[in-house]
Amino acid sequence: MSYRLPMHQRLANALSYNEFRLFYQPVVDLRTDKIVGVEALCRWPQRDETFAPPETFITQAETSGFIVQLGDWVLRTALDQVRAWQAQFATDLTVAVNLSGRQFLHYNLVKSIEDALRASQVHPRTIEFEITESVAMHNAEDSIGIMRQIKGLGMELALDDFGTGYSSLAYLKRFPIDKLKIDKAFVRDIPDDGNDLAIVSAIIAMAHALGLKVQAEGVETAAQAEFLAECGCEYAQGYLFGRALPADDLAALLTAQSEQPA
Ligand code: C2E
Ligand code: MG
Ligand code: MG
Fold this sequence. Notes:
Helix 3 packs parallel to helix 5 (109-120). The protein is of the alpha/beta class and 262 residues long. 48% of the residues lie in helices and 20% in strands. The chain has an 8-stranded mixed beta barrel, surrounded by 5 helices. One magnesium ion is lined by residues 160-161, 181, 217. The site of one magnesium ion has 4 residues, from loops.
């Protein structure tokens, strides 16, 4: 029975039976209120029709090393999907793909990205890789080398969950990144919590001073979006704009947007 199988085997079976799904959360440009990108988020449907929590199965995939295969599937699926949307909607829609620690430090990462890029034929600018602050800081010198190679392929890099890991500002200025993603923990209580207001506006000002773009995560209310836009935060994602959705549902949002007057 499957629940007796080791987790690595269960995950491998799930991949070979094509059980994983990729959902897409809209990323909105706060200056225009338009969807300009998506973040690809992996889902694993269970027999009881719930989804396994990503925090759990991604961690298990990470521990068992299976994340390397799963991550390759995520990247290839995301690129195929976004290429189709770019053609259908005549947009430069971008896709953000998360890289976990083990994927990021895997010796074959850069080659597998190059192969996926070649297979999909999308422009490298289409892709943004998200690395958490903790992963980037864990082995900062090696991280800088890998980031440079990814940047050398023409892709963008974002630091995910910013503010929750061990931020070394000395490294932050050396990382060849394009964007900071403010963790939802700081967004949740704005505009009521004065400390969070101060932290968020300071992160945005610092990012801009370093020449980085900023994206807020976990934006759930219009008041949060308004405050972020006033501080000059360029991008946002969160339930206010849309949850992570199956490809067809995300396409419906893009269709609605393409039918709006410019
Ligand atoms: P993350 O990359 O920081 O993704 C953002 C998480 O915030 C997602 O959780 C998303 O569904 C959730 N979220 C989005 N908007 C809101 C909001 O307005 N309010 C709240 N409370 N939450 C919001 P999800 O999908 O459960 O993913 C959790 C984490 O699992 C991700 O965090 C990412 O670290 C990891 N993950 C998911 N898919 C992948 C993948 O394909 N590869 C890798 N390496 N990691 C993944
Ligand atoms: Mg992310
Ligand atoms: Mg995040």
